[in-house]
Write a structure and sequence with these properties.
The chain folds into two domains: about 1-115, Rossmann fold, CATH 3.40.50; about 125-225, Winged helix-like DNA-binding domain superfamily/Winged helix DNA-binding domain (Arc Repressor Mutant, subunit A, Orthogonal Bundle). The chain is built from eight helices and eleven strands. The chain has helices at about 10-20, 35-40, 60-70, 85-90, 105-115, 155-165, 170-180, 190-200; strands at about 1-5, 25-30, 45-50, 75-80, 95-100, 125-130, 135, 140-145, 145-150, 210-215, 220. The strands form three sheets. Strands 2-1-3-4-5 form a five-stranded parallel β-sheet, with helices on both faces. Strands 6-7-8-9 form a four-stranded antiparallel β-sheet, covered by helices on one side. Strand 6 and strand 7 (about 135) form a beta hairpin.
Length: about 230
């Protein structure tokens, strides 16, 4: 598996390159944000690991620009900034996971393994369809009524899960466990934020909505004609 490590601390970078190499990964390294962005956009990686505080271009700006260029590679943010607000900002910028320094490599490795397995490549479920909404796991493309929709990685995973459970109510607990890999409630509005953003992308420009909030229960994705 090929991973990109964007880290300006030389000793930290050497440690990560050596550690990931020893467990069979193929790590590439960038020591500043501009180089990291160039590699992320122009080469194929399975996972990105980004430091937040980088020269030339900070980690969150790098991530935002990568997402704007259609790069959906699962991304873990490494940072000494560890408050709840810092973590939420990182996730809202397009990150899939956030790990605070200092950290144990065993935990970092476990998180990278989880990220690399998200949205698997099972050809039998490569394409999900709900009415005129279609999601392709392999090309990572989403469209509704033939109109392409650009989603960030977390939004993509969220939509895939909702489509897999179309027509049924999906609870917040289910989303936390299946989309965020949380087995506890982080006591943030992260789900509401992502649902709102996803709704704005798949429903805003269309006559009838597909994504519905079921008050007191959760959320439901439905073909418009079936909506109650």
């Amino acid at each position: 598996m090929k991973i990109l490590i964007v880290e300006d601390d030389e000793e930290a970078a050497k440690f990560l390159i050596k550690a990931f190499g020893e467990v069979g990964y193929n790590p590439a390294h960038a020591k500043d944000g501009e180089t990291g962005l160039h590699l992320a956009v122009n080469e194929q990686f399975d996972v990105l690991i980004l430091d937040r505080m980088l020269p030339k271009l900070d980690g969150l700006s790098l991530l935002k620009q990568a997402r704007e260029n259609g790069i959906q590679t699962p991304t873990l943010i490494l940072s000494a900034l560890g408050t709840v607000d810092d973590r939420v900002e990182g996730l809202r910028s397009g990150g899939d996971d956030y790990l605070t320094k200092p950290y144990a490599f065993s935990e970092l490795l476990a998180r990278v393994e989880v990220l690399s397995k998200r949205i698997g490549n099972d050809d039998s479920e490569a394409v999900l369809k709900v009415g005129t909404l279609q999601l392709n796991r392999l090309s990572r493309e989403v469209e509704r009524e033939g109109q392409k929709i650009l989603l960030q990685p977390r939004e993509f995973r969220l939509l895939a899960y909702l489509m897999q459970n179309a027509g049924t109510v999906v609870t917040r607990t289910m989303l936390l466990e299946k989309v965020w890999d949380y087995h506890f409630d982080p006591q943030t509005n992260v789900i509401d934020v992502h649902i709102s953003r996803l709704r704005g992308k798949i429903d805003k420009d269309f006559e009838k909505p597909m994504l519905h909030t079921i008050r007191g229960a959760g959320y439901k994705l439905q073909i418009p004609e079936e909506a109650m």
